[in-house]
Amino acid sequence: GHRMTWKQYHRIEDIYGFLDYLAKTYPAIISVRSIGKSYEGRDLKVLRISNGQPSNRAVFIDGGIHAREWISPATVTYFINRFAENFQDEDDDIKNIDWYFLPVVNPDGYEYTHTADRLWRKNRKPAIARQCYGTDLNRNFGYRWGGKGSSSNPCSDIFRGSRMFSEPESKAVSEFIKNAAANFTAYLTYHSYGQYILYPWGYDNAVPPDHKSLDDVGKAMATAIQQTGGSQYTVGSSSGVLYPAAGGSDDWAKGQGIKYSFTIELSDTGRYGFILPTSFIEPVAKESLAGLRVLASYVNKY
Ligand code: 0X9
Ligand code: ZN
Q: Peptidase M14 domain: from which residue to which, for each copy (predicted)?
């Protein structure tokens, strides 16, 4: 058994217990592995769902890069549960993709928000001088690292780290994606809040050559979300609709050649912000799944 529900936010132990339970219960399609350890020594667990067909494209989905954005791991685990419990009856668009889920990229920060500081954002590795803790993992990825919207001050909430991939968590994600045999066609990273579907580039006001197709996919996802749940999402480039911020995981994934790279800022638009009540978990996750299904159809068409 497991303790997972989507009526509460869960501690890391419950989330990992749930992943392990699924691997045990559905061994033909699900496996779980640790892709590395966090600074404090917690596993970084990735769950893979696949029907094993060698022709499959692959999609990587992560959550919990930022510790306080609790709706993100809750949404990613909801996706996992829906696919796991229903895989044989899913559409071919879902079944013909190798899904990789890392629900909590930053488990140390996530636990810290449960035990000490609900609004903590970064990981928990102390700076060299030890005067402050934590690097913003979404400023630590190695694409145009060190640019706008990132800080060299270890006490800043947007501290970029001492060098690109200085943090075990961002390093593990990048090594896994680079070395996986999987043919990743999409990278989705779930954050909160604001209700945005963002595509590269984030480092500065520029867009990749295929921005038109990213915009089309993002808008199709937003339409599906609105039709299912009613939340309105704004679609655009990160730098254009939000702000420039270099070192994000989305830019790095795009730089690796992953076609559909999106940061999705989940609900809400600011009434509750990071402290989203638990009654939002199911509706937010459910409408997000409608967006994910649209993404899957584009992945299979590409
Ligand atoms: O600033 C961020 O890291 C993200 N917003 S959040 O409120 N969740 O912190 C947006 C990241 C967008 N992508 C890039 N700037 N690369
Ligand atoms: Zn975030």
A: 8-299
Alpha-carbon distance values, 232 to 84, 209, 235 (Å): 28, 27, 10
- Do residues 251 and 212 make contact, with C-beta atoms less than 8 angstroms apart? no
ipTM of the complex: 0.99
Ligand 1 contact, 217 CB (< 6 A): no
Residue 138 alpha carbon to ligand 1 centre in Å: 7
What's the CA-to-centroid distance between 72 and ligand 1, angstroms?
13
Residue 129 has a pLDDT of: 85
Average pLDDT score, the chain: 98
pLDDT-derived band at 136 (thresholds 50, 70, 90) equals: very high
Mean pLDDT confidence for 68-75: 99
pLDDT of 181 over the 90 cut: no
* Distances 246 to 249, 260, 262, 289 between C-alpha atoms, Å: 9, 18, 15, 28
184-222: pLDDT as tens digits: 999 999 999 999 999 999 999 999 999 999 999 999 999
- The whole-number pLDDT of residue 128 equals 87
**136 CA closest ligand 1 atom index:** 3
Q: How far apart are CA 101 and CA 188, in angstroms?
A: 10
The string over 107-118, giving b where at least 16 C-beta atoms fall within 10 Å of a residue's C-beta and e elsewhere, is: bbbbbbbeeeee
Query: For residue 160, which ligand has an atom nearest its CA?
Result: 1
For residue 297, what are its two tokens?
């159809």
Q: List residues with catalytic annotation.
A: 265
The CATH classification number of 12-301 equals: 3.40.630.10
Asked if residue 250 has its Cβ within 6 Å of ligand 1, the reply is yes
**How far apart are the C-alpha atoms of 232 and 159, rounded to whole Å?**
31
